[in-house]
Amino acid sequence: MKARISTTQFGKETDVIPGPFDYHAPDSLEEALSLLGEHGDDAKILAGGQSLIPAMRFRLALPAVLIDINRLSDLEYVRQDNGSLAIGAMTRETHIEHSEQVKTAYPMLADAAEVIADPLVRNRATVGGNLAHADPANDHPAVMLAYQAELVAAGPGGERVIPIDEFFTGFFENALSSDEILTQIRIPKPGADWGGAYLKIERKVGDYAVAAVAVQLQINDGACASVRIGLTNVNPQPMRATEAEQALAGRELSDQVLEEAGKAAAAQCEPSPDLRGSVEYKRDLVRILTKRAIRKALQRAKGASS
User: How many Cβ atoms from other residues are within 10 Å of residue 41's Cβ?
Assistant: First the structure.
């Protein structure tokens, strides 16, 4: 399917808000890749559209070509695959939110799924779109950093796997080439001694986080054997709180150790002042949320259900 959407096509009385663009709706991944290869940087991939369409409405994004991949239903799934949770890039957020598999084995992902925007948005938004947009205010980047996920990209040369630590390369920038499409997210299955939690503070339901923290940790003989911490909306790009991780590694998680980790995360991030709060407020929120998320992850690692 192909169409031309332009302001002149509809006349002055029915002008559309976005700039003019060619619209394609391929029926297969191969067709989508072919279109992407043909149009290169002039093209944008349309997944759930919850970020791109508003950006086009305000003409912050002016793609000459829009490639709508919503017909690629084979990219919408959640399943176990070779020891990992495999999520198709076109999987809707509501699918994650209501998945018993996710609630049972991946509680941190379930935490995030419940607080992404609002139900209307979650009905359309996709996991792949959330990640590919590389917005530091989105919820999935911090969660996937904490899970040490892997992302699968398809391109003209086949598939390649991108470790999440190498995916976010700058402000709204990612490691995908202009001729690649994100197709799958892989989350390693946590063991019985692992626990995770995602905590978010927002001004109102549906808003971006003032700050949020994702913690995934492993406990061995009462000490923290392994931990990864991701932060939301307090840095120019999605980030791990590596100094907080170092403060926890190999130690029993006492109140003093948690305070050290919280302070380390607050010091490492670089929030910007805005309507959601000052830099000082956001740093202190990170300190508090880091401690709370660690405690909740620890409870889950010990087998608590909360």
Answer: 11
**Is there a contact between 127 and 89 (Cβ–Cβ < 8 Å)?**
yes
SS3 content of the chain, % helix, strand, coil (to 5): 40, 30, 35
Which residues have a Cβ under 8 Å from the Cβ of 162 and sit 6 or more positions away?
Answer: 150, 151, 152, 153, 175, 176
β strands within the chain, DSSP E: 2-5, 21-24, 43-46, 65-68, 78-81, 84-88, 150-155, 158-163, 168-170, 173-174, 181-188, 194-202, 209-220, 223-232, 239-240
Residue 47: phi and psi, rounded to 5, are -100, -110
> Two tokens at 110?
């379930």
Both tokens of residue 69?
């991949």
Strand-pair category, 239-240 with 223-232:
antiparallel
The segments of the chain whose pLDDT lies below 50 read 9-11, 13, 305-306
For residues 189 and 293, give the distance between their C-alpha atoms in angstroms, rounded to a whole number: 20
Q: Which residue has the tokens 């910007």?
A: 272
Q: State the Cα–Cα distance between residues 114 and 139, nearest whole angstrom.
A: 10
* Of 140, 120, 122, nearest in space to 212 by CA: 140
Q: Which residues of 242-276 are buried (b: 16+ CB within 10 A; e: fewer)?
A: ebbbebbeeeebeeebbebbbbbbbebbebeeeeb
pLDDT tens digits, 184-203: 999 999 988 999 999 999 99
* Per-residue pLDDT tens over the stretch 50-83: 989 989 988 888 999 999 999 999 999 999 998 8
The pLDDT, as a whole number, for residue 18 is 84
Rounded Cα distance, 200 and 232, in Å? 8
